[in-house]
Amino acid sequence: MLTSSAHRKEATKRLRAGPVAAAALTIAAAAAYSAISLYRHERFGSTVDLATQDQTIWGYSRLEMIPNTVIEIRNLLGDHFHPMLMALAPLYWVWNSPEVLLVAQGALLALAGVPIYLWAARQLGELAALAFQASYLLFWGILAGVLFDFHNVVLAVPAISTALYAMLERRNRLLWAMVAIALLAREDIALTLIALGLYVIAVQRRYVLGSAIAGLSAAWFLLILGVVIPAIRGGPYRHWTYTDLGTGPSSAAIFVITHPLQSLELLFVPLAKTRIWIGTLASWLFLPVASPIALIAFPYLAERFWSVAPTFWTFHLEYSMVPAPILAFAAIDTVARAKRVFGGQVGKRAVAVASAGVVVAAALLSFLINPLDELRTYVSASTATDIQACLDIIPPGASVAATQELLAHLSHRHAIYQIPDDHDTTVEYIAIDLASDGNNEQERLRQGADSGPGQARCDRPGAAPPDGALAERGVRRAGLPGLVRIGGPRR
To answer: Which 8-state DSSP code applies to residue 305?
Structure first.
């Protein structure tokens, strides 16, 4: 029979086991996410998004604010307002590679699961907390974001998760710190924070705090969209894709108020949008629907589905990352309410069933949606080595125009342009992946390329040229599928 001292020791062991397991889940997820992203990059699956962010953050690491030539804008803050990216610049002093962003992204997404665990542990117990943390880490929307390049919005994911924890635990200093980080992560995160402020007012009855968060976030959103970004960009905000609602935030808000049914319909039609709603909520067994916390995710989801751009209505890309921790907290809240309502053994069984269910649902939907399917489509290791050997010909400071799969491997320079493009800038080298975009641009390259001593032929030894080999101004540039063609100069 255990003494009281033995009981305390046993309880202490159990308490320690939970945080250790949560830390292990976090580390394992960060390692897995990073491995997926690094594999994709090393096999030349990375594209424009990583190159765009990398060139600018590389500039920050050199204490420079350089024009972003990948998307041809004089300052990337005029595209999206994300000064928090500067916080990642010191990582380049340790590892001067775009891969550092991929590892940072994996770590940030994994860390966003920690506040989920902490709050669930207080509400439901250690085992249930681990289950909800795992459901977030297995969510198909997180995996889809991991697979597709690096995204500036990733900085908002742990900030939002921690802000929710701080709000629910009434830790105001931590809450304000996370609000500040989230606002600096990207301009549209302010909409989510407005909803968070309204929750604080309506549910927690903390009127001053909620009004301050909502009011500050609204003012910030209007200031950044209406003044700051146009001033930096030298033109209007270019990501307004809500023309079904209006030409700007004001007209869109008026449309939603005056046409509520039509606005509601636009959230679910066409059917592709409804599929995303179902796939998202089903990952948590539709539990978030019963919690008011889920309303905090509504602005981000509405922003996504009111857009006229079909790229937002897909199971892939990064668009499901920000709502993920919010929905996890909402699901926990629903189960905690059920536990209190039923009480006793029934309440404990409800927690156990829900905890097991969300893990199974998240894993099953990730398996069925298969956001990682793209991993089997990349070039082989030997081909990747050959392509990199070609790219190594280009001097570090040379200006380059490249097809999109090569951009992120060449973006540590002041002048890197995407093929196809419409710029007239002279570049010293051209890098073409003949397995993809290069084949579609052969006519343009024939018209724009110069022959000369700067050109380099880059073939694998003994390889025969394939059909459709590229010839430019009398210089024959043969290549294999996946091989990079390097030459220059070009105007």
So the answer is: H
